[in-house]
Amino acid sequence: KKTAIVTGAASGIGAAVCEQLRHAGMRVIGIDLRHSDICADLSTAAGRAYAVEAALCLSENRIDTLVCCAGLGPQAEPVASIAAVNYFGVTALLDGLFGALQAGCRASAVVVSSSSATLQAWDGNPLRQAYLDNDEAAVQAMLAALPPDLAPQAGFIAYASSKNAVACAVRQRAASWGQAGVRLNAVAPGAVQTPLLEAGLADARYGEGIRNFVAPLSTRARAEPADIAALIGFVAGDSAPFIHGSVLFADGGIDAAMRPQHF
Ligand code: NAI
Q1: CA-based nearest residue to 203, from 43, 11, 73, 12
Q2: Is residue 72 in contact with ligand 1, taking CB distance under 6 Å?
Q3: In contact, 188 and 255? CB cutoff 8 Å
């Protein structure tokens, strides 16, 4: 039986991915803060190290699919935890489990980014560079020292920057992972009906922006977790052998409507 590791397995998109992969016949090992096979806090270096160690142990060092869904929304406090989980909690697992993926069968990994990653320009932004340099202290210092006009948006900036950087982290690894025969992609959802989205909608600072973050699609404004899980299952699976290093938007057209000339 093939083995999958899924972070954020206890809720929302991660829970839907677990169901999808189990349905496809895989053995699924979930990682989350609670209610999971491996209970670990991916916001801390110690929690990430424990999650990697436990995943290697339970999988016996052979992983066929890795899906990183665990994440915090822009309303989460403290702001530092958003970058910690959404970026550093992802790259620690990618790099820590890469060896076990190389031992897997036609292995691949998928990371959940967000279409909010493109709402701001990050080219040349020192915050993005600090992420890509794997400098967690510098990221946290920059988020804590935002200029007064940006400080009220700190949660959103932490969220969007972490989601942009994690998509870049996927693309940065495409050459080396490709050489090793392990595919790696990012999926960037728009608004998905989950507890994370509900918490954002209920937040006084970000609720209105999130309410307006709807797809330009007459059939539905928001996705269901299963819609995103279906795409992740496809991209991670054997039907997508040539999809590698890609950032696949599943946002009902939000990114296209905002940036028609960029892709
Ligand atoms: P969710 O809140 O339903 O699930 C996220 C899971 O991550 C939870 O089970 C939570 O316990 C876990 N998690 C949070 N912090 C953790 C930590 N420190 N250590 C271990 N696990 C932790 O949210 P949802 O919406 O399913 O989010 C999944 C991913 O999709 C996230 O990365 C999110 O940013 C992303 N996303 C969600 C969108 C949406 O509209 N819901 C849109 C775009 C991206």
Answers
A1: 73
A2: yes
A3: yes
Ligand 1 centroid to Cα of residue 70, in Å, is 4
Q: What is the pLDDT of residues 29-63, one digit of tens each?
A: 999 999 999 999 999 999 999 999 999 999 999 99
In a domain, 113, yes or no: yes
Residue 263: inside a domain: no
Residue 262 in domain: no
Residue 260 lies in a domain: no
| Strands 247-250 and 183-189, sheet pairing | parallel
Q: Is 4 in the pocket of ligand 1 (CB under 6 A)?
A: no
Which residues span the domain enclosing 9? Answer: 3-253
Provide φ and ψ at 59, rounded to 5°: -90, -5
Which ipTM value was assigned to this complex?
0.99
CA atoms lying within 13 Å on the CB side of residue 237: 15
